[in-house]
Automatic annotation (TrEMBL):
Stated name of the protein: CENP-V/GFA domain-containing protein
GO molecular function annotation: carbon-sulfur lyase activity; metal ion binding
Keyword check for Lyase: yes
Keyword Metal-binding: yes
Stored PANTHER family: CENP-V_GFA DOMAIN-CONTAINING PROTEIN, GFA DOMAIN-CONTAINING PROTEIN
Protein origin, superkingdom: Eukaryota
Stated family: Belongs to the Gfa family.
Keywords: Lyase, Metal-binding, Zinc
UniProt xrefs under PROSITE patterns: CENP_V_GFA
SUPFAM superfamilies: Mss4-like
CENP-V/GFA domain ranges (all copies): 1-138
Species name: Thyridium curvatum
Length: 147
């Protein structure tokens, strides 16, 4: 799948033809990052994306932030376009410094992304109604929790 920021300075292909999952996250950080009611991320293997290509390294800025569960000791490694400011992707860095082997690419940047299977997380913080019948979690699923 083709990924491109708003201005086109950062672009790449996903390492697989479809994401592992698509999430609509309603946490405060995703709302702030998007300036909207939630953030949408498509999860892909990080291999083939990170480290960024030389051209994308020149065009992107890296920023580290505490993970949503600030007591977890995990961090978010985030990448933005230096030109248009769009968040491109992020991944979790575990408490021991190990990066996850997956990345969350911002859904709106992925050409032809299938949004129908999206799941919702941090719904307890949602500022918009969650559609009935969708897979949803008040915080995060147990399998995503640290340690």
């Amino acid at each position: 799948m083709d990924v491109q920021c708003q201005c086109g300075a950062v672009s790449f292909k996903t390492p697989t033809p479809a994401p592992i999952a698509v999430w609509h996250c309603h946490c405060r950080q995703c709302r702030a990052q998007t300036g909207s009611a939630f953030g949408t991320s498509a999860i892909f293997p990080s291999q083939g994306i990170l480290p960024l290509s030389e051209a994308n390294q020149a065009a992107a800025q890296r920023w580290i932030r505490p993970a949503e569960q600030s007591d977890s000791g995990r961090e978010g490694e985030c990448y933005f376009c230096k030109t248009c400011g769009v968040r491109i992707l992020h991944r979790i860095i575990e408490k021991d410094g190990t990066p996850r082997d997956s990345v969350a690419i911002k859904g709106g940047l992925i050409k032809d992304l299938d949004w129908k299977s999206a799941k919702h997380l941090f719904t307890k913080e949602a500022v918009v109604p969650i559609p009935e019948g969708v897979e949803a979690y008040e915080t995060i699923p147990a399998y995503m929790r640290p340690g």
